[in-house]
Amino acid sequence: MPVRTRHDGFDTGLADDLDQVRTLWDGALAGAPAAAMPDSLPAARRTPHDAARTVPETAKGLLRQTLSSTHDLIEESSTSPTAVAAHASAGVTAWMAFRYLEALHHADPKLAARIVAETAEQLDDGAIGEFAHDAATAAGHDPNAWHEEFETKRAKQQTTPDEKPAATTSEGERAPATASPALAANG
User: Is 140 part of a structural domain of the chain?
Assistant: First the structure.
């Protein structure tokens, strides 16, 4: 509802301002029919893009993602190295998150529930890149250097497409050249 400011004629205290506003709107509000409220309201339904808000629901989603990514990893192993890397990364990350959540839930169920709820809010907010950047900076890392390293690596790969990129660890070091048994059998 519109509210006038002090310079528009309300020059008394806040309580008087609110009384004046109520008086101005009384006639409009008094004539409105009362809203009918049902006895019980249905629980709010989550949309498919909302993040899980409970520990069991989150654990189920992480396990499902791990299994889906593992299946897709094997299916895509002969077609696209990029798809294989994406499925492998998604599966490994989901499995790690499940194991960490499981351990946290056993150690402190209330803390696990709080972290899941807070994480769901962050995921629903959509600014996880910003949250991750801030967390990396707070932990003493340089996320801008990570980005520059990624861009340099990508530019190098684009100039030499015949060479397969070497696998790296999460710290940017070259990983040993070993293939998983599932990939070796399929490819």
Answer: no
Q: Which of 68, 74, 65, 85 lies closest to 153, judged by CA?
A: 85
3-state secondary structure of 168: strand
Res. 174: pLDDT tops 70: no
Best CA proximity match to 89, nearest among 170, 176, 1: 170
| Buried b / exposed e along 2-21 (16+ C-beta atoms within 10 A) | eeeeeeeebeeeeeebeeee
Task: Please report whether residue 69 resides in a domain.
Answer: yes
Give the DSSP H/E element, type plus range, for residue 94.
helix 81-107
Decide if 93 is inside a domain. yes
The answer to the question of residue 179 being in a domain is no
pTM over 0.85: no
* Sign, CA torsion 124/130/133/135: negative
Residue pair 97/61 in contact by the 8 Å Cβ criterion: no
Scan for tokens 């150690």, then name that residue.
Answer: 107
Mean pLDDT over 40-46 rounds to 59
Domain interval for residue 109: 52-127
Binned at pLDDT 50, 70 and 90, residue 99 comes out as very high
What is the average pLDDT score of the chain? 74
d(CA 72, CA 84): 8
Residue 15 is predicted with a pLDDT of 53
User: Into how many domains does the chain fold?
Assistant: 1
